[in-house]
Design a protein that fits this description.
The protein is of the alpha/beta class. The protein contains twelve helices and nine strands. Helix 8 crosses helix 11.
């Protein structure tokens, strides 16, 4: 067994996890913190450690940390000796409600986020909401973006619930957090079961991500948190939905209010429009050179389309200061 963690999470939670797995005499691999670690060089370093310790195909990798640690560990597990088991122990809200569930693993490329990776399911996901008590408020807000996403794309009743309970979630009310995490995980698991490799309905989970990934890549990985970029990306997608006559302006306003209540940014960084468009064009969801967007028809109902007039997209970008 090998436990992969980072320099921030390790001092907080490595000792109890290592003790729980003491019978397996786990190898500990500690990475630097941050999105910048999602590289092939990091994977090579993990493989070196595993080989040096003579880890075989019966070795289980344990990801102890947030989404970055989970993505890296899952990818390493998927390729080490053609695949070994791995366990997710997510310690951030974003990882607990999104990245630890569904089997997407990978690392970034200079031209695009998560462009190198695999679909590889963990054998188990272990979630302890108490780990959120040591999470910085900015990281908690980033996780709430993915929670909001589930209500926006497929569960209007959950969106209503979030409007009523957001202040409690921000205040780390245990009962509210547990309910939000469970509902989010159930929503994602249902989609993944129906479409593990994103050939259809799973694409809806990318609401806000086409814009969001362009933000993350454009400003440099780690300068904006994933959830922050997705939060703004959802607002941009909702604005585009209104411009196309798909969504009522009042629904977009409710989304803006909920994103603000979660403590998320309301506007993207001021990137030049040609750069922003180029980054969206190389997104994984693009097909045949056309950018595909997840747009809203109503709160709780989303659709995927590549039929977006350039004028409407340009108007949305300009509205958010991207020219």
């Amino acid at each position: 067994m090998a436990i992969v963690t980072n320099e921030v999470v390790g001092p907080l939670y490595l000792a109890p996890v290592a003790e729980a797995f003491a019978a397996h005499d786990p190898l500990v691999i500690t990475l630097p913190d941050g999105e910048a670690q999602k590289t092939l060089a990091t994977i090579d370093g993990i493989v070196d450690r595993l080989l040096a310790a003579r880890c075989d195909r019966q070795t289980t990798l344990v990801a102890l940390g947030g989404g970055v640690v989970g993505d890296i560990t899952g990818f390493a597990a998927s390729v080490y000796q053609r695949g070994v088991p791995f366990v997710q122990i997510p310690t951030t809200l974003l990882a607990q409600v999104d990245s630890s569930v569904g089997g997407k693993t990978g690392v970034n490329h200079a031209r695009g986020k998560n462009m190198i990776g695999t679909f590889y399911q963990p054998v188990s996901v272990i979630i302890d909401p108490d780990t959120l008590k040591t999470l910085p408020s900015r990281e908690r807000a980033a996780g709430l973006a993915e929670v909001i996403k589930y209500g926006a794309i497929g569960d209007a009743a959950f969106f209503d619930w979030l409007e009523q309970h957001m202040s409690r979630l921000v205040a780390l009310d245990g009962e509210s957090l547990a309910a939000a995490i469970e509902r989010s995980c159930r929503a994602k698991a249902a989609v993944v079961v129906a479409d593990e490799r994103e050939a259809g309905v799973r694409a809806l989970l990318n609401f806000g991500h086409t814009f969001g990934h362009a933000i993350e890549t454009g400003v440099g990985y780690g300068n904006w948190l994933h959830g922050e970029a997705v939060g703004v990306g959802m607002l941009m997608a909702a604005d585009l939905s209104v411009r196309l006559g798909m969504l009522e302006a009042s629904a977009a306003a409710r989304l803006r209010a909920l994103v603000a209540a979660a403590g998320l940014p309301a506007a993207p960084p001021r990137l030049p429009a040609p750069v922003f468009l180029d980054l969206m064009a190389v997104d994984k969801k693009a097909q045949a050179g056309r950018i595909r967007f997840v747009l809203l028809e109503a709160l709780g109902r989303a659709t995927v389309t590549a039929d977006v007039p350039a004028e409407a997209l340009a108007a949305t970008l300009a509205h958010f200061g991207i020219r």
